[in-house]
Request: fold
Amino acid sequence: MIWKIAKKEFLLNMMTFKFAVGTILCVVLVAVFVPVLADDYQQRLQRYSQQVTDNEAKLRQVKAYRVLTPTIYRRPQVLSVFSQSKEKSLADSAKIGFGARPDFDKIPEINAGPSEVNPYLSIFPGFDFLLIFKIAMSALALLVAYDVISREKEQRTLSLMLSNRVPRAHVLLGKLLAGALTLAVPATVAFIVGLLLLQLFPLISLEASDWVRISMMYITSLIFLMAMYNVGLLFSSLTGSSSFAMILGLFLWVLFIIIVPDGSVYLARELQPVGTVEARDEQMTSVKKEFLQEWREKRSTLPRGGGANTEEGPFGGRGHWYIIVCDPAEVEYWEKGASLEVSLNVKYARKFWEVEHGYLEGLLRQTRLARNIARISPACLYDNAMGSLAGTDLADFQAWTAATRTYRETMLRYIRNKTDDLRDPSYITQCTEAERIAWAKGDESRDEAGESAAKHTSPLNLEDLPLFAYTMGITQGLQRATVDLAILLAFNVLMFSLSFVAFLKYDVR
Amino acid sequence: MFFQIVRKEILESLLSVRFALSILFTIILFAASTFFFVERYREQSEDYWRRHNENLSGFREQTDQLCNIAFYEQHIYRKPKVLSLCASGAEQRLPGHFTFDGFDIGLPQIVGQSNFTLPRFGDLDWAWIISLVLSFTVFVFAYDCVCGEREKGTLRLILAGATPRATLLLAKYAGLILTLAIPLFLGLFISMIILIASGTESVGFIRWESVVVVVLTSFLYLSIFVFLGIFVSARTSNSSNSMAALLFIWVVLLLLIPSLGRVISDRFYHAATTEEFERAKSQARKSIDDRFYAGAYGSKASGTAPNRDDPDVDPPGRARYTVDETAAINRVVDAQYNRMLAQAEAGRAFIYISPAVVYRRICEVMAGTGIDRSKSLYRQIKRYQQNLREYILSEDQGDLGSLHLLFDDKARVTGWTTISHKSVNFDTVPKFQERDLGLGESLRLAVWDIGVLALFNLVFFAAAFVSFLRYDVR
Reply:
């Protein structure tokens, strides 16, 4: 009987105006905007590839370990087409460096700030595939559900149905099944159209893990749509008139889709204020001063050094130079100076990071609170789960940052191994002892020494350089999405249970 | 008959659940938005005045020598406005910190308690409540105004009398607008009560004419949705279809189209990345340096000896070189700033098909907030820089020992005394003061947008009128 009711209801839904309009709207939106979103992803991917290629080319030009300061880039996630989440607004690169002299313009560790090139674009909300589901499809779910019970009462078919030996539970389960089938149609069509369009883009290749994540996204979307359907079902079971059920449902929909997401942010900002940018910058300035002070004090204990002919490293920036040729006193200086420079950089990089991290933690606490408040809305739960599955959420950014910091330490170990714990002159120069002595003599022999050193100063062999690797596994994404998915499922169960109770007591006359 | 129908419409609405819900939503939202605003405004004002005074006291210290004034790096912050309660113009997310001296200006920065990790959110202000929640409420009231009566059979009854269709349509329109006026005015009233009761000092400086324009514009905006509601209701035979169609129209017009601005901006406009911007600045500097090395500024322009009478220095040549270099870099900064704004404006121009975007822009212009304010502030600072330089040069005329050359090289300007070292009276030094647009100027800026809203009204009125005239009441 359940199946019969479901089939009848499904066929009725299929022929309604609201279903036709909702489905056409969703499919048209997907067909029009997925290519735009995919093209945007392609552009970001091209930029990323270009940056990585440039970085590799520069690595091939490194002639001293001191200027081995590559940049790590965050690869754009292909599934950002489905859920952009924080993908575009967080830092997408981190500079790895240890050896530069106190470089006061940069934070030696990771800058976790926003990556937005144009802050004026923040006036626009984001747009992705998820938005179509979150807004248009959820409205459709509500419109399909609001009259499933009350309409039958108004048409007097409910009393007719229940006068037979059909248990109420079967009626409700049939309606639920019909709702699921009805909503699965536009959802499936939208996903298929979206994926087919994605396949048309040559740079977009979906791997097996992406397909698993897309499947999870599809399931999550269905769970979300069912949550909205169950809200409609509840109101339909509670009220005797469809228009009343619709009004209640629509107001709740506005609350879930618009008011809760924005209101939660406002509430979190009131309850959990964050530090100001200026306060962070002041702290940074004081650390920089401390850094400079210690550098000056300790530097005075080093050998005086001598003259040197230097050249800028391929990665550029203030203080990023190495020596082509110098006098022996300079090498003497570097035997101890390199170690001091690196140890101070590492020490203060950590301090800078502590300030940055402290500030960032404050921001994240506020964001977490906003997110937790917003969890009363199924739309926000859906948003969170989709962001986690797409790998574009905050947690993914944090994981990438952690991987970058680990890589930084690996790089330092590599340089220490290669340079006899920074004591070897190869850290700063490739010139020979004879060239140094000749250079120290001055005049013509200096030019000769310079020419000779420049000739044999060749790029380092960095074949054994540890490579940075970061990939988000499916399990991590799933784990992060679990909480939101579980709440979304619980919301479904709760709404259906309430509908069930309401329907058991429903007066069908 | 007209007034009878209006009265009936209002009374019917007042007794409905939808009216109770809309009143509840509107009051809660207006009250919450004002509470949040008052708290934030107080904090922002304190921060603003502290920073403003710090900047002024630093500036005052420079007046012991005229030449120092131009080199003082001033920090100007966007002043919080009480009218941002009407439309905050996303200012919390826009850069509001301008750093400049007498020669150059950096790109504005974001300051304060900005949290880039938060999800993007709408500003909980009057414009947000009216544009989203009240427009939705309009549809909830209007969806069955024609087809609902048809379903109940009352439409036939009314039209069987001597009531012309036009009168009925206008009466329904008036009834809906008056019904909507209740939650709107109640919300605004509560908001104003909270604002005044909070003791916010600046309430006395509110330009009430702007508030009136915002309220009138709100009616113009809501009227579009009333006509649209009547139109769709008159095109459908049952209220359920009417609501479905209206809901999808609302979703597209108010939620989806405004979200497309970013996609469009990214797709068609490109603002230089930080690296590209820095590279452009280096190139600009290099192009001037090339001219410098080619001798365009004289052979002695490179001389930097401490004594200006040294035969190896050429202060006018050096000044020309530095001025050209500063101008070249300023051009790059200006271009980048304009490109960023153009990118945002291009996205906004595309989403102008949404009445909500047009309405919000009118509110922003009347409240003096948003991107237009950022643009105006930047222009004002550029003009102020010019005034400051003119002031320095005019004061410098009185010092016969000075070379009267002002350029962006503090070591040379002070070392060679190209500008006087005499002290100046701080009161005579121009200080930056943001000038708000007058009501006339704001209206001039908003007039096209108001025209667009009026046009929307006209189009939907015509559509509703024609549909209703042809409506089959059986």
